[in-house]
Amino acid sequence: MPEITLSQGTLEYEDEGSGPPVVFVHGFLVDETLWAPTAKALGSRARCIRPTLPLGSHRRAMGPGFDASPRGVARLVLELLDALELEDVTLVGNDTGGAICQFVLDEAPERVARVVLTDCDCFDRFPPPPFNLVFALPRVPGLMALTGAALKLAPVRRLGFGVLTTHKVPASQLERWCRPLSQDRAVRDETGRFLSNVDPQELLDVATRLPRYEGRVLLAWAPADRFFRLEDGRRLAALFGDSELVEVHDARTFVPLDQPEVLADLIGRELDRAATRSAAAPRASSPAAG
Fold first, then answer.
1. How far is CA 158 from CA 106, 138, 152, in A?
2. Architecture of the domain whose range is 3-277
3. Nearest Cα to 95, choosing from 267, 241, 210, 258?
4. Rounded-to-integer distance, Cα 177 and Cα 171, Å
5. From start to end of the chain, where are the E strands?
6. C-beta of residue 176 within 8 angstroms of C-beta of residue 33
């Protein structure tokens, strides 16, 4: 897997396909493989860039100086865009990654041409119950290590992730997601710092500034999600001037795994829409003949 060294550490990422760049932002305790089926379904319509961010399933700790916070991870995403010299970027987020996307828009809205958000944290639901209990783990000494040990057990992994999908996640993928937290103390400590720095009030504050974003926003939301409510998606969509919410059925939180073809088609539609607008712009601005 390719790697790129940024100011605060090294990221692994996948970079495949050609065309307009689409950058995928995963959530807590998963990695870039969350997006692999969607990227495959997109095929040759886009250049798909899938970084593994320091959110618990990364195989290399960033280091003691890393700003392990949602805003710190958002700044890593922005640094990645700059390092890869990406322009006209489509940013796609899910779960905690959707919150990271909102922090990116708060930091530098001009760097993102359009956004696609699937079921994700928003407003003060960061994270939604009962996952707020998981995010409180670092406050109790020893609980992060105990959690890492528990995640070595396949039944625990199946129970924890099973509520997030309508389709079964392969055991090998669950093991891949949980192995770093279970086996690497540096990753575990860094993840604990991130969890400690999650503040629902901060994302609620970010929401007050999201209306300044002038790009296109598509929300692909699963009504059957048990944790991220459809009304939250509608409320988030209402913040933006150019937005649309599309309901994705037979899916839960992990829309990219449950309905990758549907999500790929929606992303492709947004890319086609942008290309059509770009092609029409010169003609619209030309003076009328005669």
1. 35, 23, 11
2. 3-Layer(aba) Sandwich (3.40)
3. 258
4. 10
5. 3-6, 9-16, 21-25, 47-52, 90-95, 114-120, 216-221, 243-247
6. yes
Nearest-5° Cα angle at 207, 200 to 254: 70
Report, in this order, helix, strand and coil percent for the chain, each rounded to 5: 50, 15, 35
| pLDDT means over runs of 10, the chain (290 residues) | 93 96 98 98 95 97 92 98 97 98 98 98 93 78 86 93 95 97 94 94 98 98 96 97 98 98 98 88 49
CB 166 within 8 A of CB 224: yes
Count CA within 13 A, CB hemisphere, residue 66: 29
Q: What is the Cα–Cα distance from 34 to 25, expressed in whole angstroms? A: 9
Count Cβ atoms within 10 A of the Cβ of residue 21 and give its class: 0-12 exposed, 13-18 middle, 19 or more buried: buried
pLDDT at site 282: 65
The predicted structure's pLDDT at residue 40: 96
Query: What tokens were used for 126?
Result: 């960061």
Total Cβ atoms within 10 A of residue 196: 15
CA atoms within a 13 Å half-sphere pointing along the CA-CB vector of 239? 23
Edge-to-edge strand ranges of the sheet holding 216-221: 3-6, 9-16, 47-52, 21-25, 90-95, 114-120, 216-221, 243-247
**Cβ–Cβ < 8 Å for 53, 77:** yes
